[in-house]
UniProtKB/TrEMBL annotation:
This is Maleylpyruvate isomerase family mycothiol-dependent enzyme. Transmembrane segments: none annotated. It comes from Streptomyces alkaliterrae. The keyword Plastid does not apply. Residues 16-155 form the Mycothiol-dependent maleylpyruvate isomerase metal-binding domain. NCBIfam families: maleylpyruvate isomerase family mycothiol-dependent enzyme.
């Protein structure tokens, strides 16, 4: 339990997801660690390496000194290069090495979180590419989001669906919805006065409308629109995969019902991913 109750929901969601990941990978035979996930270039082992790497950095462990191979096609810029280091150093680790390090990292991280005394507004170092500082609340929210999304990556790779309505799912929903106005108004260039509706069903259900005001600024809320330019109807898992850049519209078109302006709909879906 943290000293500040407002932070506890994020810690609980993080804990729920890392426990689920541990349960998923614990019994895996060596070959299944190499199964591809929807994260470009990353296997199940690589996804777990990423989670371990960021948690060890939050523990204060130094980043590895490591030179990446030049043939990693998914490493396209400095942010992806930054993230890849913690992954590539573990690329040849065995299953027991991976599960042991994960277990030990979680023990240390839970102890750190139990003893955390800083409040929600305290400034802490970000582990994202580019560094900088964010609030403790933002950091814990992002960690809960990140580990839940990667839990789902592993589940899809292993064909072990579940936890689509867990605490982390609701945190993920709020973070992904926060990025919608920028997608519609800025990236897709929806004109002033436009309304776009997202009707999502499944384990997590919601209907949200993005409206673009006369200044070209977007906002999102739960009030319905009587004459939207576009309405998207899709299930929660498909929304997640699209918004996290795991798939493009062409791969899941049969799961997405689109009504209205086709050109605007295509522009929105082209820029729909809001994660790095």
């Amino acid at each position: 339990m943290t000293e500040h109750p407002s932070l506890q929901p994020y810690v609980d969601a993080w804990s729920h997801s890392v426990d689920a990941i541990a349960e998923l990978v614990g019994p895996l035979p060596e070959a299944d660690w190499n199964r591809r996930t929807e994260c470009p270039g990353w296997s199940v082992r690589d996804v777990l390496s990423h989670v371990i790497g960021l948690e060890t950095e939050l523990l204060g462990d130094p980043r590895p000194i490591h030179t990446l191979p030049r043939d990693l096609f998914h490493v396209v810029d400095e942010p992806s290069r930054y993230m890849e280091v913690q992954v590539d150093v573990r690329r040849h680790h065995t299953a027991p090495e991976m599960t042991s390090e994960f277990e030990y990292t979680l023990i240390r991280r839970r102890r750190q979180l139990r003893n955390e005394r800083r409040g929600p507004e305290a400034k802490v170092r970000s582990v994202l590419p580019g560094g900088g500082e964010i609030t403790m609340e933002a950091l814990l929210r992002l960690r809960a989001f990140d580990v839940w999304v990667h839990e789902q990556d592993i589940r899809r790779a292993l064909r072990r669906p579940g936890n689509l309505d867990s605490p982390g799912a609701h945190i993920a929903r709020d973070i992904l919805l926060h990025g919608l106005p920028k997608v519609v108004a800025k990236r897709a260039g929806a004109p002033a006065g436009t309304a776009v509706v997202f009707d999502v069903h499944g384990p997590v259900e919601f209907m949200r409308t993005v409206r673009v005001d006369q200044n070209g600024t977007g906002s999102v809320n739960g009030s319905p629109s009587l004459g939207p330019a576009v309405t998207f109807s899709l299930d929660w898992e498909t929304y997640l995969r699209l918004a996290c850049g795991r798939v493009r519209l062409d791969a899941v078109r049969d799961k997405v019902k689109i009504e209205g302006d086709e050109a605007l709909a295509e522009a929105i879906m082209k820029h729909f991913a809001v994660t790095p």
